[in-house]
Recover the amino acids of this structure.
């Protein structure tokens, strides 16, 4: 899809009209209505702005964007939480209800019909979350980067999500077998290992090919956004690296059996893949300034938005949590220009400085969260 075409049609096909929170994190009970374009959520730090964004994420993805158990989403002193969101998609109203009672299984319903598996909901209401912790994509381990791109692919492809779930489940079983045999002093059941390996090979090869194809298309969007935001000639690159580029997964698993038995874990596979971020061919983590790193991750998230739109023909909801921090005025101005573009979907922007958001988004819908 070419986003630069002058004949671009009206793309506003998905927006959250209202949300009702009940015992979710810091909220006892609250209802909010939203504009179809830009919504500014303002208030002092610690009043619940991020929690509101997470509630929206929960309705779109079926889980919190943050680490922690499901029960930790329940407000202190309560024994359940419930979230209800009314969306408009393709001029149809879609009502999502998510609830959890302590000691029971979480429920997720779309138009009163419960899902058998929460994963079936992923991708129906695409969303992208930008948050201060996004720079962990640069600073932390490969697990963070895989999770970012797995989230993207999972929202565009149910087959990818199901393959990933089965791969991770099988990997956990294989690792558990290695540890149990070591603890009990038994020999590893090689027939069982072969069964696990056959699943890892089938699903791992599929995951590898999906990631390889995705990164080529994603890079086009990413390069455009970085240059737009940086407004200078900074050469950045994004590379997908996998051991499967050099050798088939079946052979990798076979050759690593001795190491697996010694280390009690599966040392080869797509769970070891990484995405490398470079600035002028050097490590962005080491050589990038705070502003360059922040610009890089914002470009990643906007590229994610364009990729989702291109794949699903639907603009995702944009959840932007405290994104202005560590950005200079010129980059903030460019960021605002991007958000005002017609192809961008409904946006939710949190800010502890209401006057700043008021100056940037004069026509936005403002929601003030009281102290």
């Amino acid at each position: 899809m070419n986003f630069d075409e002058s004949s671009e049609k009206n793309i506003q096909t998905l927006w959250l009209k209202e949300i009702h929170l009940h015992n979710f994190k810091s909220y006892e009970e609250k209802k909010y209505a939203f504009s179809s374009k830009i919504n500014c959520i303002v208030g002092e730090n610690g009043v619940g702005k991020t929690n509101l964004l997470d509630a929206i994420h929960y309705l779109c993805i079926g889980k919190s964007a943050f680490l922690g158990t499901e029960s930790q989403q329940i407000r202190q002193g309560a024994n359940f939480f419930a979230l209800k969101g009314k969306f408009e998609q393709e001029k149809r109203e879609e009502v999502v209800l998510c609830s959890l009672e302590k000691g029971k299984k979480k429920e997720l319903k779309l138009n009163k019909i419960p899902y058998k598996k929460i994963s079936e909901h992923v991708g129906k209401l695409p969303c992208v979350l930008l948050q201060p912790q996004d720079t962990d994509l640069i600073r932390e381990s490969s697990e963070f980067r895989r999770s970012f791109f797995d989230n993207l692919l999972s929202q565009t492809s149910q087959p990818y999500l199901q393959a990933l779930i089965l791969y991770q489940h099988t990997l956990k079983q294989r690792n558990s077998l290695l540890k149990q045999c070591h603890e009990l002093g038994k020999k590893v059941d090689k027939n069982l290992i072969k069964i696990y390996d056959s699943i890892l090979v089938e699903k791992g090869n599929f995951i590898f090919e999906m990631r390889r194809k995705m990164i080529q298309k994603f890079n086009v969007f990413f390069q455009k956004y970085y240059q737009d935001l940086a407004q200078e000639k900074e050469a950045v690159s994004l590379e997908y690296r996998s051991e499967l580029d050099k050798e088939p997964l079946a052979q990798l698993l076979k050759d690593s059996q001795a190491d697996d038995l010694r280390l009690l874990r599966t040392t080869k596979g797509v769970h070891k893949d990484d995405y490398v971020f470079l600035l002028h061919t050097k490590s962005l983590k080491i050589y990038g300034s705070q502003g360059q790193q922040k610009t890089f991750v914002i470009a990643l998230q906007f590229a994610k938005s364009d990729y989702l739109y291109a794949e699903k023909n639907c603009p995702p909801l944009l959840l932007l949590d405290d994104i202005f921090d560590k950005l200079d005025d010129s980059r903030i101005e460019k960021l605002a220009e991007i958000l005002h573009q017609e192809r961008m979907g409904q946006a939710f922007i949190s800010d502890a400085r209401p006057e700043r958001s008021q100056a940037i988004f004069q026509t936005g819908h403002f929601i003030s969260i009281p102290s």
